[in-house]
Amino acid sequence: MTTTAWPLLAEAHEALLNAVKGVGDDQWQLPTPCDQWTVTQVLQHAAGDQLAYAAALTGGEGPADNPFAPSGTLLVNPVAHLTAATEAAAEAWASVADDAAAVPVPVPPNTLDAVTGVGACALDAAVHAWDIAKATGQGQPLGEDAAGAILIAAKQIVEPLRAWGAYAPALEPQPGDDAVAALLRYLGRDPEWTA
Fold this sequence. Notes:
The structure is a single chain. The protein is mainly alpha-helical. The protein has one domain: dinb family like domain (Four Helix Bundle (Hemerythrin (Met), subunit A)), CATH 1.20.120. Helix content is 52%, strand content 2%. It has helices spanning 7-21, 39-58, 78-94, 114-135, 144-162, 179-186; strands at residues 103-104, 111-112. A two-stranded antiparallel ribbon has the order 1-2. It starts with 6 loop residues before the first helix and ends in a 9-residue tail after the last helix. InterPro entries: CHP03086, DinB/YfiT-like, Maleyloyr_isom, MDMPI_metal-binding.
């Protein structure tokens, strides 16, 4: 099997895993920038979405639970749970040629070119890394270059998803915004969010 390296996805997965590893034992029920979701629920959603991308690409089983209705109760080790999901997604994407014109994805329009599709998968991991890090007082998990690349993919897929409630309306750009802030505002998140 041919394998394709996707550095953007690897960076987003690493950001998400590091954010989850940084959650304290007493922080799993804290509120997050994802309105009405706790840190646990964001983790469940993020892991479920990575499994959904893997399933779309491989035809395998998707997440056992609905990523858009996370229970807030996690009975397994959070890092192990997320690691399994990100590894499944990374393995699935490794078999996708970087010039593939039509790749199945779990978000409308359900088929994207490979670069946009992997950007969408990275977007999901990266923004939830930020959600978890912000909610738990951790440092910025996203790099400027990754945020800029993810914003390119976001501008190709996010608008139809806003109608489903997956993203809030975009916030106005502000003077001095860096690439991370620009991405967050486009996704309807306030870079200065506090609980």
